[in-house]
Amino acid sequence: MGLRGLNAARKVEIASKVISSLSTSGSFHTPQSLLSELTMKLKLLETSIELSEFGDKRAVAARKLCEKELERVMRQVAVFVEHASKGNVELIKSSGFEVRSANNRAMPMKAPDEVKLKRLEVQGAVFLNWKPVSNSKNYLVQMCAKAPNKKTNWLTTGYSTKSRFVVESLTPGSSYWFRIMAIGASGIGPPSEVKSIMAA
Questions:
Q1: What is the percent of the chain with per-residue pLDDT over 90, rounded to a whole number?
Q2: pTM score, two decimals?
Q3: Which range among 23-37, 50-64, 177-191 shows the weakest confidence by mean pLDDT?
């Protein structure tokens, strides 16, 4: 993300650049909810920077919290860009992000193992959990409503920082197929074994 070691003002500049680039780029169909959340976190950080200029301890603590929240959402956006660009350097740069030097690449991620699905008491909700992957920072959860094959267009249902996730608003009585991918410093790892379940 290029945020490590930067002060709050520089983080604001980079986040602003990413929002502007993704809003005008025709190469990425960025989920509006993700852009809206990043924009909101950016505005909160800008406000907290102004309030903390006088050195008030509570204002400084609030600014640090806003910085962490901005970084959290920026990480989700970075994952989306990396996945959507399929590693294309020029596409990644067009999003406002930089590209990691090849010399600093971390070990590749492994596929999540022991994926389990469970119907919840809430109608149309399914609980997924899996064995944590070493050095992973996030997980990408994907789903499809038909038996998958090589040409299947998987739908990204969300991201999780933990080895579990809840999918809601499924159609009761319909079957769904799921797979998980670990995300780390080296990028997105291979998909897990595909598991299916019928929504209750």
A1: 45
A2: 0.54
A3: 23-37
Single-letter amino acid code for the residue at 98: E
Task: Spell out a b/e string for 108-137, using b for 16 or more CB atoms within 10 Å of the CB, else e.
Answer: ebbbbeebebebeeeebbbebbbeebeebe
Q: Which of 65-69, 71-75, 110-114, 184-188 has the lowest mean pLDDT?
A: 184-188
Q: What is the SS3 assignment for 33-67?
A: HHHHHHHHHHHHHHHHHHHHHHCCHHHHHHHHHHH
Would you give the DSSP letter of residue 179? E
Distance of CA 24 to the CA centre of its chain: 20
Say how far apart CA 128 and CA 118 lie, in whole Å.
7
| 45, 63 contact by CB (below 8 A) | yes
Q: Give the distance from CA 48 to its chain's centroid.
A: 24
160 close to 146: Cβ distance less than 8 angstroms:
no
Q: What is the mean pLDDT of the segment spanning 23-40?
A: 84
Question: Which regions of 70-186 does DSSP assign to beta strands (E)?
Answer: 113-119, 126-131, 136-144, 155-160, 164-167, 175-184
Amino acid at 5: G
